[in-house]
Amino acid sequence: MHEVAEPPESGILAAAMARGDLFAEQCPSREILNHVTSRWGVLLLVALLGGTHRFSDLRRKVNGISEKMLAQTLQWLEADGFVERQAYPVIPPKVEYRLTPLGEEVGRKVEALADWIEVNLPAILAARAGRTTA
Fold first, then answer.
1. What is the bridge-based pairing of β-strands 53-54 and 83-88?
2. CA-derived radius of gyration, the chain
3. Number of Cβ atoms within 10 Å of the Cβ of 98
4. Contact 106, 98 (CB under 8 A)
């Protein structure tokens, strides 16, 4: 087997194509970005970094989320491969949610963003206050 020399640009193009084009209107990564970075997506991913949770546990932990939004966001994250849903055949029904390895990876990324926001919250709030009084 022999190797074919590739022009240097092909590696850059391949990397760009593999990454997707987030700026393109029809790029499927936009939908995933929306699921991951939505208010509820971020909070659920960070909550699930703490381990396996039942639906009701997540509802209590993520204060303010409706049942509908919790179910919908978990379905999106499950469809994207970030969350694993385990249903047990018992009465009453028992369902648990946990992060997949891919979910743990993205969870750490959004946790870092959430941590950055918390650390910088005083400066952000001061900037907001400065805009509203100016």
1. unpaired
2. 20
3. 14
4. no
Q: How far apart are CA 108 and CA 49, in angstroms?
A: 8
- Distance between CA atoms of 32 and 40, rounded to whole angstroms? 13
Nearest to 94 by CA among 52, 42, 62: 52
DSSP secondary structure code for residue 92 in this structure: S
Cα diameter, the chain: 70
CA separation for the pair 36, 106 (Å, rounded): 8
Question: Going residue by residue through the chain (134 aa), what tens digit of pLDDT does each one get?
Answer: 444 444 445 566 556 556 667 778 888 888 999 999 999 999 999 999 999 999 999 999 999 999 999 999 999 999 999 999 999 999 988 999 999 999 999 999 999 999 999 999 999 999 999 886 65
Report d(CA 40, CA 59) in Å as an integer: 11
Paired strand residues for 41 = none
